[in-house]
Design goal:
138 residues; two-stranded antiparallel sheet; Sufe protein. Chain: A; mainly alpha
Length: 138
């Protein structure tokens, strides 16, 4: 399995294939198609990520000492971003998530691609992932 940093670099390389912002946006939207089925019983306020313009749900799932997530959003860009974040940080030990350098995500240059509101949403999703990792770390 690829490390967190390797996955981030892989997304960076994919985004670099596109010349303009609209193509990169389309790539983010396309990532939403990779999302797994979201169990409807989790579509409630207790799993909603605050700070997002769209509705985003993020549910922690511990299995075999690894933290994964159920996730969904009612907006394609947000769903694409939460899909990418859960691909990068999911299916890992909570300590691996907590010990990773979250600044590495900056190489994706989302701050130049996303509107301030969407950037805040991505930051909120990342904070929620960190929060869940801290809760589950033993």
């Amino acid at each position: 399995m690829k490390s967190i940093e390797e996955k981030i670099i892989n997304y960076k390389n994919n985004l670099d294939l596109f010349d303009d912002g609209m193509e990169k946006y389309k790539y983010l939207i396309d990532q939403a198609k990779n999302a797994e089925h979201f169990p409807e019983e989790y579509r409630n306020d207790s799993f909603k990520v605050s700070g997002c313009q769209a509705q985003v749900w993020l549910v922690p799932v511990m299995k075999n000492d690894k933290l994964s997530f159920y996730y969904d959003s009612d907006a394609f860009i947000s769903k694409g971003m939460v899909t990418i974040l859960c691909d990068i940080y999911g299916n890992r030990k909570p300590s691996e998530i907590n010990n990773s350098n979250f600044e590495t995500l900056n190489i994706l240059e989302l701050d130049t691609l996303l509107t301030p509101g969407r950037r805040n949403g991505v930051y909120s999703m990342l904070e929620k992932i960190k929060e869940y990792a801290s809760v589950y770390e033993k």
